[in-house]
Specification:
Number of strands: 10
Shape: elongated
Order of helices and strands: HHHHHHHHEEEEHEHEEEHEEHHHH
Structural class: alpha+beta
Helix content: 40-55%
Radius of gyration: 26 Å
Length: 414
């Protein structure tokens, strides 16, 4: 009994001791160096070792140096490759300790590395970071049990004179990033980069549907044939109505008067020939009133188990993927690429995702209790500081003003 009590007492102190040990280890180290400690370097090196025929491995700028420099540029918000290399050159004495190598970063060498090195290494490492972030944040609190994914895409416009390979109109170039984001952990679990001309509904064919998981789509993905395939795979979907189709009500009340703003909750069946062939089963139709926007939204789902208010709640949580896209375009400077080739663009997108997942892991590991975006912003402004990461997020107590005996005059405005 005595031993058990002592063991519990020691275990209670364990998190404090670990935190103190981390603080001592990071004493006097740059914030950016502490950030990169959360990257599995050995896993990254094994990916490179598999590319034995890559002649660029002999360069002074290693793959690891390249990854860290690009992550630094993402966190710092650099708008161009020149800006990034100017900053790293100005801090050349810190280059080795930041993980950039022993020599200052040369812009032309970094540009060639982005152009020539295989983007698949960065892609595979990005998916590994996604897996690590998922495991780290899997215990995030959420109102509903289960797996819920928001799926959407964002189009990034590019200058046609510089990105001819990405042309999708006579006067425009661009790419699309199709992303499946875990609503609970807020981690992107899959991402595909295509030409901007690829239609959103085609991306539904690339999803690896999990049984009993729920996929949330905007109305741009309205395709009854593809939605019925999800039904056949024993998965669930929630999608917003697009151009009200003709249907007959099989079950449900015409008007609900509950306090959860659900106006209708019907089981319906499509009546037109094309829709009946594409979706022959019954489907649930929910009309929800959003009091803040003072408008109604209509959702369709094959989930007959959740409450109607929970279906509306899930669709409202689709905003996490839109927030992620906004963050990619803004905070990670995805819109201003540091290279013109497809390879360079892909590397930058994958490094952006690696950076996002790294910050997500840091937030959870150090129990910062902040949003990923807030942590990103604070770290980005403190990269060359020599504080402990956790100290950046601890509240500072206001210092009490001491009376030093000096005469102070206070004037009131007339």
């Amino acid at each position: 009994m005595y031993i058990a009590k002592n063991l519990v007492a020691h275990l209670n102190w364990l998190p404090i001791l670990v935190t103190q040990k981390i603080a001592i280890m990071n004493d006097g180290r740059y914030i950016f160096s502490q950030v990169t400690d959360f990257l599995p370097k050995r896993y990254f090196e094994r990916l490179i070792e598999a590319k034995s025929d890559d002649k660029t491995q002999r360069w002074d700028l290693t793959y690891w140096n390249q990854l860290l420099v690009l992550m630094f540029g993402q966190l710092d918000g650099c708008n161009s490759l020149r800006e990034l290399t100017d900053i790293t050159t100005a801090h050349a004495k810190k280059s080795y300790h930041l993980g950039f190598g022993k020599t200052p970063i040369n812009r032309s060498v970094l540009s060639k590395a982005n152009q020539l090195r295989d983007y698949h290494i960065f892609e595979e490492f990005a998916y590994h970071m996604v897996e690590l972030a998922q495991k780290k944040r899997i215990d995030q609190e959420f109102e509903l049990n289960g797996k819920y994914y928001a799926f959407d895409s964002t189009t990034i416009d590019l200058c046609m004179s510089l990105f001819e390979w990405a042309r999708f109109r006579s006067t425009k170039s661009g790419i699309k990033v199709h992303t499946q984001l875990d609503v609970v952990t807020q981690i992107p679990v899959s991402f595909n980069i295509t030409e901007a001309a690829v239609h959103d509904v085609n991306a539904m064919d690339w999803i690896n549907y999990e049984p009993f998981a729920c996929y949330i789509f905007d109305r741009g993905y309205w395709d009854l044939d593809r939605l019925y395939r999800i039904e056949l795979l024993n998965s669930f979907f929630v999608i917003r109505e697009k151009r009200r189709p003709k249907f007959e009500v099989v079950d449900g009340e015409d008007l609900l008067e509950d306090t959860d703003n659900i106006l209708r909750d019907h089981t319906v069946r499509f009546t037109t020939k094309g829709n009946t062939e594409n979706y022959p089963s019954e489907i649930r139709r929910i009309v929800y009133y959003e009091p803040e926007l003072k408008r109604t939204f209509t959702y369709y789902t094959n989930n007959f188990f959740l409450k109607a208010k929970d279906i509306a709640f899930l669709y409202k949580n689709r905003w996490v993927v839109e927030t992620f896209f906004k963050w990619m375009k803004g905070h990670l400077r995805i819109k201003s690429f540091w290279g013109n080739t497809e390879n360079a663009v892909r590397i930058q997108v994958y490094v952006a995702i690696i950076t996002y997942c790294t910050v997500a892991i840091i937030e959870r590991t150090l129990e910062l209790n902040r949003s990923i975006y807030e942590v990103m912003r604070i770290l980005g402004s403190s990269l060359l500081a020599k504080d402990n990461i956790k100290e950046l997020f601890q509240p500072v107590e206001a210092e009490q003003t001491q009376d030093d005996g000096q005469l102070r005059l206070e004037f009131e405005a007339c």
